[in-house]
């Protein structure tokens, strides 16, 4: 008799669990970044930002269309490679994700955007700054950072006006991001009345810059700008010091990381490095960013590198649009996402224009004092 009772109780419990799970909808959100290769530390930073957002949303409990939702993160590695990026994008589409945050690099985000567009799945990049990304005519493409026209141009003018650069050299890594930001920097220099005395290029896997730096040294630049990522910029700064080059070193958000001093091998102690992050908070909004950094450190035992807060905001912006649209179906929530206006994120206020670009995007200028990154100014 007792045995039969146990079976009945077990059956009731099983049915209850079955009903609970039937009422909970699983919503898959994709993330893509380079979690292998030279900038894996940045890709992991991004992925952790997505995991933090997903974990918080699940802990909070979100209801969409009358059903409690469980969010699932599908994370892919594109190694910063365009071909691997499109393969990762297709894999996510085949896995039925309803939205994607990524990719990190412009060179992977731009070709992947067509795959997401063809599938009608929204893509929000936390860090792709090449203007072309949102100018391909796709309705599914968004970003939560300012583009290179703003970033590169601002840095170019800063080099002339604030750093008093008289002879400026420009180097890029020939990627969509690196070349794009370097081109805009050069325009900003010339627009500000400055002179570019040399333009050189390398690649995003290079480690020896002796030939380029020897050529630059002969031109006696007082500022060197590098368009690319920190994994290349660090060794370049170290080798420039070894060659006795005294020029100030500048770069965009790709070099503006917590890892740069380590990658430069101690060469930044007496060199002036200025970089810009494509975002920024001021006043009361600073507390939100500080709180995020504290929670991130506690969760992952790692400091924020650069883009994790933007990934975190991008995930939350996607979900806010789903909640408002009362649907996680891309076709239903995409129009709501496109109309996002005044969303208060940890990176600032997010509103999208007709191209999917962030409106009134901020830039934060930084320098380094030894191993520490220090804020110079927030500009718009």
Q: Would you give an account of this structure?
A:
The protein is α/β, with parallel strands linked by helices and 380 residues long. It folds into two domains: 2-145 and 285-360, Rossmann fold (3-Layer(aba) Sandwich); 148-277, Rossmann fold (3-Layer(aba) Sandwich), CATH 3.40.50.2300. It has a seven-stranded mixed sheet, with helices on both faces. Strand 9 (223-227), helix 8 (230-242) and strand 10 (248-251) form a beta-alpha-beta unit. It is elongated and about 70 Å long. Helices cover 45% and strands 21% of the residues. Helix 2 packs parallel to helix 11. Keywords: Amino-acid transport, Signal, Transport. This is Branched chain amino acid ABC transporter substrate-binding protein.
Beta fraction: 15-25%
Count of DSSP E strands? 15
Number of helices: 12
Largest pleated sheet: 7 strands, mixed
CATH architecture of the largest domain: 3-Layer(aba) Sandwich
As residue ranges, the low-confidence spans are 1-21
What portion of residues is helical? 40-55%
When the domains are counted, the total is: 2
The CATH homologous superfamily of the largest domain: Response regulator
The overall average pLDDT, rounded, is 92
The Cα radius of gyration reads 23 Å
Written as H for each helix and E for each strand, in order along the chain, the element string is: HEHEEHEHEEHEHEHEHEHEHHHEEEE
Overall 3D form: elongated
Order the strands across the largest sheet as they lie in space: 8-7-9-10-11-14-15
Structural class: alpha/beta
Q: What's the CATH class label of the largest domain? A: Alpha Beta
CATH T-level fold name of the largest domain: Rossmann fold
Distance between the termini: 76 Å
